[in-house]
Every structure is written in structure tokens, then in C-alpha cells.
Amino acid sequence: VLAEPVPAALVAPPAARRWRLYGLAASVLFAGVAIGWVARGTLAPLSPAAPSLARSAAIAHAVYSPEVRHPVEVGAEQEDHLVKWLSKRIGTDLRVPKLAPLGYDLVGGRLLSGPQGPVAHLMYQDAKGQRLTLYVSAQKGDGRDTAFRFTQEDKVSVFYWIDHNYGYALSGEIKREALLTVATAVYQQLSP
Prior knowledge:
Layout: H1 14-39, H2 49-64, E1 74-75, H3 79-90, E2 105-114, E3 117-125, E4 131-138, E5 149-153, E6 156-163, E7 166-172, H4 176-190
Antiparallel strand pairs: 1-2, 2-3, 3-4, 4-7, 5-6, 6-7
């Protein structure tokens, strides 16, 4: 085999082989661009902050809502202090939604660390002891608003949305329809 002559295709001048490789590379590049162009718009754009917001809110709810002795850092009796403190930390004039007409009273709140910085975490409770939490954080991004989105993390239902540069997530272990009613009330109170 070593004594056989080298095939003519392998003996082509180096410039000819180089042009074949350039042609192959250009074909692959063109095919990739064409596939990308045809596929554009087939995937719905999703803010990368949204899933993180909902998941972080569900985790915070699951961790703090069962607490009996220390569910919050600052209780509802110090609401003015709570609002000023959390507003300063998250960088906005935080408003605490009034949910008593829906059967939920403010328990208080706490400051949390979130993926994009400080987070305000407010807790509400009804007469049966059922708790809801509102998770509010600054969101880096394009500042576009989003509609309500829903997710379920184990037993915790979460409605979340982005309003300007802030993300809101209302979490609770209640039925989706009941949580939507409260989320709508929260949204109406927070968006003038």
C-alpha cells in the first residue's frame, strides 16, 4: 500500500483545497443564517427575570409562611417604619396593598436578598391562618410591562408580573382563581 501512487484528489494544489474549504464553510454559515431567519419569532420572548422572580417568590413563601414566632422582621403595628425602611432598601416608594376587604390583614414584612438585589417581602393572613406573601424586587431589563403570569411551585401558586422596572409576585397555597382575585386587587392598588 505504501508503494501505491497518491490519489489525484489529494495531490491538488494547496490553493484549490483551501478554496473548497472556504466554500464548505460559507455553505454551512449560509445554512445556519437561513435556518435562524426562518425560525425567528417561533419562540415567544420571555424576560429572563420572570421565571427567577416567580421561583424566588415561591421559595420565600415556602420558607417564611409556616413560621409561627418570627414570620416577619417588622410587624404590621409598625407599618410606617416598615414601608420607609423597605422603600429605601429597594429604591422605590413602596405601597402596602390593603387586602382587608378580601379577608387578608397585613402581618408585616422583611427584607430579603434576591437574585437582582434587595427584596421587600410582605406577609398577609386571613382569619383561618392562611397566608399570602407579596415579593417586590427591582428588575433589570428593558422596563417593559408584562401581563399576569401564573406558575405552580409544588404547593405554592404564584401570580407574577413586571411593572416598569419592578417585579411583583403574589404567592400562596390557595386555588388559582382565589389567588387571581387577590393579585388583581394588589395590581390595581400598586398601579395608579
